[in-house]
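__Record contents__

***
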Amino acid sequence: MNFSHLFERKWQAACEAGAFDDLPRKGRLDLDDDAHVPEEERLGLRLLKANDALPAWIEEDKALREKVAAARNALRRAYLWRQQRLAASDDPAERQRVEQAWLRARAQFEQAVAEINRDIFHFNLRAPSLIVQRLPLRLQEEYARLAQSS
């Protein structure tokens, strides 16, 4: 068993579930303590802090997380709408229209996941460390997550 892969999945799931949202200084680097930063990078970090800015890779990671959340939310809304409509309708034509709409929503989600995975690939190339790299989304896992949450 690959424990680093398991740990990464658990860590990512906890981050996406908001387990770390209430931590102090959320989304901000502690740039006051630069003892661990190489001498040649300290000036850059101080400039970032003075201008209330974050390194580009952190901003890119935030944008990735927002894209993932938006895609998941859109799929979840479509899934819940489908469940409601199917439960409320006995008309075969209406049920077929609902299923077609669901298939379109799934196709849009799959397109969004492909785009997000391209963005993750490019993010991982620019990430300063393996620790901050993100795993690509897997459609089967996303659909399983959807089914479990409903």
The chain is about 70% helix and 0% strand.
